Amino acid sequence: MQGMVEGAVRERNAPGSAPSTAFGGPPPRAGEDLRGTLTANGSLADFIWFRTGGPAEWLVRPSDVEDLAGLLKTLDPSTPVLPVGVGSNLIVRDGGVPGVVVRLPKAMAKVSVQDGRVRAGAGAMGITVASAARDAGIAGLEFLRGIPGTVGGAVRMNAGAYGRDVSDILVEATVVTRDGTVETWSAEKLGFTYRHSDLPAGAVVVEAVFSGTPGEPAVIGAEMDRIAAEREASQPLRSRTGGSTFKNPEGHKAWALIDAAGCRGLTRGDAQVSEKHCNFLLNLGSASSAEIEALGEEVRDKVKAHSGVTLEWEIQRVGIAAPSPLRGEGRGEGLPNSAAPARSTSDAAGDGGRPPLGPLPHAGGEA
User: Fold this and answer.
1) In whole angstroms, what is the distance from residue 76 CA to residue 99 CA?
2) Of residues 4, 22, 1, the one with CA closest to residue 319
3) What stretches of 45-133 adopt beta strand conformation (E)?
4) CA nearest to 149, candidates 190, 188, 191, 103
5) How large a percentage of the chain has pLDDT more than 70?
6) How confident is the model at residue 324 (pLDDT cuts 50, 70, 90)?
7) DSSP per residue, 236-275
8) Which end of the chain is more exposed for a tag (fewer CB within 10 A), N or C?
9) What is the pTM of this model?
10) What is the 3-state secondary structure (H, E, C) of 116-150?
11) HSE on the CB side for 329, CA within 13 Å?
């Protein structure tokens, strides 16, 4: 199997050169037995919905759960692991992501229905799960139609919209922990709160089981259509964005606070606060991740000054800042408001298909 992995790693290196990355590290020895692929300097901007950011030091696509578990079990414990799905709620900083970034294959995006429950691979998209539930006459999962990320990411962040959260429908999730152990976590063990779960860093959701209530497919379908139409009318679905930027503070709507602070349409470089829905940040074409993040921090400052409310990021920000001749060697230097370059976890895995450059069915939080 080593030849397959070495080929994947070498595709970005000169003939005969040793596999390496822009971060200077050698390939992880754990990759020698990987049946999937391991790519040095793997592009993330190719599929992250903002279309910005640096590469992954190592981009891994395991072939199945056992392959992923084997990789994590033998991977140096000091190597950070970040599961990423379609990147619909993610800012990847311009210096890239050190360590291993995991994307699940399409084979881990299957959805089935049995005994009134929906079982979904973590790579499945929300709309796929909602559609399977509709066809089986299972109500209560309609809101997933408005969440563009993968099941894994939705479980990790307790994604929600229109008054419902993943915590309302999740029965259990299968997780591969950072040490390679495959475990089943109940909804209670996940410790859900608003846009949060207790999944530890480096753990990867690989499957989830959801439950609902009996319903008529036609009624369920009508509700899904209503959600789609409402989002089309109120959100910038045809732009490069990352969904809801900030969590709704208790008793407030983030968009209303942002609007009241005079931030609608605010720009920094080619990054802009959406004029259609001001809890969305946009890449108008050539924005850097640094510009998008700095714009978000400017919005936070203005809202704090106007209303006294501190907005909390809902979009996950990962990786390190790009090197700057004026501010040192990057790795977090010069980030707005001392934003930490923490290798935080995010949208847990899945292929799900790359979003088109045209209409993007974004969501990721309440409107």
Assistant:
1) 10
2) 22
3) 56-61, 81-83, 90-92, 97-102, 111-114, 117-121
4) 103
5) 81
6) low
7) -TTSEE-S--BPPPTTS-HHHHHHHTT-TT-EETTEEE-S
8) N
9) 0.83
10) CEEEEECCCEHHHHHHHHHHCCEECCHHHHHCCCE
11) 1
Mean pLDDT of all residues in 350-358: 34
Interval 200-223 mean pLDDT? 98
- Quick check: 175 and 199 in contact, CB under 8 A? yes
pLDDT tens digits for 97-114? 999 999 999 999 999 999
Q: Which residues contact 45 (CB under 8 A, 6 or more apart)?
A: 51, 52, 53, 54, 55, 92
Over residues 33-54, the mean pLDDT reads 95
User: What does the alpha-carbon distance between residue 81 and residue 102 come to, in Å, rounded to a whole number?
Assistant: 7
Res 356: pLDDT: 31
Mean pLDDT of the chain: 85
Catalytic site residues? 195, 244, 314
Q: Which residue has the tokens 């979003």?
A: 355
∠154-120-280 over CA atoms, to 5°? Answer: 25
- Distance from C-alpha of 198 to C-alpha of 242, rounded to nearest angstrom: 23
User: Which tokens in the block code for residue 8?
Assistant: 């994947």
Mean pLDDT of 186-190: 98
